[in-house]
Input
Amino acid sequence: MPRAELLTPSGLGELTAALQRTTSSSRLLAGGTDLVRSMRHDHWEPDLLIDLSGLRELVYVRLEGDRLRVGALTTFAELQTDPLVRRHARCLAEAAARVGSAQIRNVATVGGNIANASPCADGVTALVALGADVRTIDGGGRSTVRPLEQVLVGSGRTSLAPDEAITEVSFAALGSDRRTTFVKIGSRATVTVARLSMALIVKYDGVSGTVSEVRVALGAVGETAFRDARLEELLEGRAAHEESAHLFADGCTDAVRRAIPGRSSLPYKQRAAVGLAYDAWNALGLCDRCQPAWG
Output
């Protein structure tokens, strides 16, 4: 098998020129934590490999107006400690801190996490809850922005064209009245792939003690991370007390049932969803700590 040609663009102009040469067998290399493993495990090689690591202009986190913008080559190590992310999108900072090991977080990028389209991608689950948009550039130099949920097609599949590269992710910055968290369950306490994950965002009214504008994203259950409207409506306008926590946990088990009916993993994931729901609720700090009846 012929070895892949390697291109190393150092700017967006050079990236555009490189993208003009791509085929369906070409690949973009960001952190490479999944791509390199796949090439070795499945014994395949692309015809063209575009190494994006020289595009330092795509490494940033900045607040523009009411919108937080993150360059596609920003690593998870950078996201987990960035003050803007921690202030305006804490669920993303928490998700970033749970990605693999410290070594992986040092090289894995937010753009690569999206392009890989794994159902259990921690960063993607948080970004879905945040209502993120994805900006891309193609071989013709055209820049396009579309919702993340339109980019994610299925497990390992996106709507990105072969000559299209992610350049930025953006979303509305959360204000001080928002409470947010990311939680997951895996086979180990650390360095684990999620078997079930959740990003939860609520607007909390400290005067009335109620939550509104609820967003719940679930990952590692189904083909892609997704928001569950029925689960969000369940909490909308409710008082932040133990009864709501119990209702939320029941709603999470139902959301899992609707997402993967008939799957062999359903009984495990429904039970795991209960613990995950209480972990998320308690992390928001809305009321005294709650736990399931069997907890």
